[in-house]
Amino acid sequence: MIRNIIYFIISLLLFFIATILYGIILNGTEVTLDEALIQKGIVQFGKVSIVVDRSNYKLNLYSDSTLVKSYKAVFGKHSGRRNKMLTDFDTPIGSYFICEKSSFNKYHKMLKINYPNENDLADMLRLNSITKNEYSLIMKSKNRLGCVDNKLFQNGEIGIHGTGEYNFIFTNLPFVFNWTNGSIAVSNENIDELFSVVNVGTPVNIKF
User: Fold this and answer.
1) Strands 184-185 and 58-63
2) Taking the C-alpha atoms of 42, 75, 148 and 190 in order, what is their torsion angle to the nearest 10 degrees?
3) Which of 54, 138, 146, 178 is the most buried (most CB within 10 A)?
4) Residues 116, 175 within the same domain
5) Neighbouring C-alpha atoms within 13 Å toward the C-beta of 178
6) How many Cβ atoms from other residues are within 10 Å of residue 170's Cβ?
7) CATH code of the domain containing 163
8) Stretch (H or E) spanning 4
9) pTM
10) Separation CA 208–CA 199 (nearest Å)
11) Does 144 score more than 90 pLDDT?
12) Do 61 and 161 lie in a common domain?
């Protein structure tokens, strides 16, 4: 009996190691942002924008209308429900922009988006997901850049961030595992690249 348990544990460990190794091999083919710019013949970024494709688990970085690079991305743990609630752990869909950049985040770095925007709040109010009082509080809490006070959210701020201390594991998973609070997660290395070219005001279009 004990021998069977040991064999089972060893088998699980070997499977986990093989899975990570396979992910490392897959990631080894990814080009850097600098390499992508050279391949596209881009000397200097034009207007930077981001398009998130939830169905294909991609974050696409554009310079003007040129796709510069696609990043593997994962989303909220309940993504797909689209319930229009503040605390449903679903990645929102719509047009947003970066309203804050933070280098001091538990997920390495954060590009916060202006969620919920006015359209989101209007929908939530119409669907009775929030009260009129909550609507007013959230609208008043928005700063001049459109960011909302994090204290009004049980699931924290929403944006694009890295994977923090578990970067090696999450980055090298060869399959999709949605785990965030509704944010868009990429690897620490990839958020570093995005952080270097994305500024406050950069548009972010999230598609289903």
Assistant:
1) unpaired
2) -30
3) 54
4) yes
5) 19
6) 20
7) 2.40.440.10
8) helix 2-27
9) 0.85
10) 24
11) no
12) yes
